[in-house]
């Protein structure tokens, strides 16, 4: 396989009809490390929105069980992308995610914002920041957007943006209006950064923390009231990521896909897991340990008893 064969395969596919397949190639073959970092930053950004940061802080999952919460999120998102939204592991993961979300009071505006981070941050990481071994094409960006639009519809999110540019504008305006310091958001941020450091050898933990801080933009630094990283650290982090991209560009393409179950940083389920039993729920939620949740119309549609993963767009 030549270096650009997978890119060429993507451009033979339809950006909307084949968006799941395109995302599988982009995330498991072309940019597995980059997509993981970009989606991690996407989720991290949401902590700076008070309604989200405070909710996550109250659950204690992001502060008391940070590793498990990280693992559950990665596995659920991975399964949907790996298996698609048809009946099976992908549909089961989608249903479980919707059960978790419907157990909390989350506004449609916050749902739209979180979805926008998933759409925008990978494109910014690869294209705007220049950290990818190649840029995403307009065709790939469109497929990336179509995939998350489809996911948003299965989640029952209303008023989903139609284009990448609309998602980008939503993200920028929402952050400008809502980013602010909260105690809960700061606790979740601290716990997340502490977890990230454990992914590196202990001897470089201090450097890893400084590197992580150096790739956070100023809006996040201000929202969490962190001491700004030095210019030297910012330049060093930027140079290191661009140097990595230049090295990867000269490597052979990845022929075997890399999925979450091959990620050594996922540590909570060494013996395997049941997707119907993972996730974060209020202590009193009856669905938290429901192995066969189909038919809970309050969670994902009124078609009681059918295998419906989510409400159609426009229904909560």
Describe how the helices and strands are arranged.
Layout: H1 5-11, H2 19-30, H3 32-46, H4 50-59, H5 61-64, H6 66-83, H7 89-102, H8 108-128, H9 138-154, H10 164-178, H11 183-197, H12 205-214, H13 218-224, H14 231-249, H15 297-300
Helix pairs in contact: 2-3, 2-9, 3-8, 4-11, 6-7, 8-9, 8-10, 11-12
Write up what this structure looks like.
This protein has 316 residues and is an all-alpha fold. It has 15 helices and no strands. α2 (19-30) crosses α3 and α2 (19-30) crosses α9 (138-154). It is globular and about 50 Å long. It starts with a helix and ends in a 16-residue tail after the last helix.
Number of domain units: 1
Number of helices: 15
Summarize the main sheet. Answer: none
| Mean pLDDT reading | 89
Beta-strand residue fraction: under 5%
Which term fits the overall shape? globular
User: Could you list the spans in which at least 5 consecutive residues all have pLDDT below 50?
Assistant: 289-316
Structural class: mainly alpha
- Rg calc: 19 Å
Q: How are helices and strands ordered from N to C?
A: HHHHHHHHHHHHHHH
């Amino acid at each position: 396989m030549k270096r650009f064969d997978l890119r060429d395969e993507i451009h033979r596919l339809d950006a909307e009809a084949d968006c799941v397949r395109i995302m599988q190639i982009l995330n498991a073959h072309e940019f597995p490390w980059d997509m993981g970092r970009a989606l991690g930053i996407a989720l991290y950004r949401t902590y700076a929105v008070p309604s989200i940061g405070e909710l996550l802080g109250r659950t204690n999952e992001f502060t008391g069980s940070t590793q498990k919460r990280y693992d559950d999120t990665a596995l659920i998102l991975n399964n949907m992308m790996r298996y698609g939204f048809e009946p099976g592991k992908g549909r089961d993961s989608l249903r479980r995610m919707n059960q978790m979300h419907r157990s909390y009071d989350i506004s449609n505006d916050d749902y739209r914002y979180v979805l926008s981070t998933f759409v925008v941050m990978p494109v910014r990481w690869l294209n705007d920041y220049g950290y990818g071994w190649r840029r995403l094409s307009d065709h790939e960006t469109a497929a990336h957007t179509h995939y998350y639009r489809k996911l948003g519809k299965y989640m029952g999110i209303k008023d989903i943006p139609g284009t990448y540019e609309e998602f980008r504008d939503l993200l920028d305006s929402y952050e400008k209006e809502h980013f602010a310091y909260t105690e809960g958001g700061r606790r979740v941020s601290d716990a997340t950064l502490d977890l990230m450091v454990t992914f590196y050898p202990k001897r470089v933990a201090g450097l890893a923390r400084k590197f992580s801080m150096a790739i956070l933009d100023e809006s996040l630094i201000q929202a969490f009231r962190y001491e700004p990283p030095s210019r030297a650290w910012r330049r060093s982090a930027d140079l290191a990521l661009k140097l990595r991209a230049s090295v990867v560009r000269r490597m052979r393409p990845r022929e075997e896909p890399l999925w979450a179950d091959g990620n050594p940083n996922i540590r909570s389920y060494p013996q395997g897991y049941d997707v119907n039993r993972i996730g974060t729920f209020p202590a009193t939620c009856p669905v938290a340990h429901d192995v066969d949740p189909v038919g809970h119309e309050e969670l994902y549609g009124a078609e009681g008893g059918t295998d419906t993963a989510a409400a159609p767009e426009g229904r909560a």
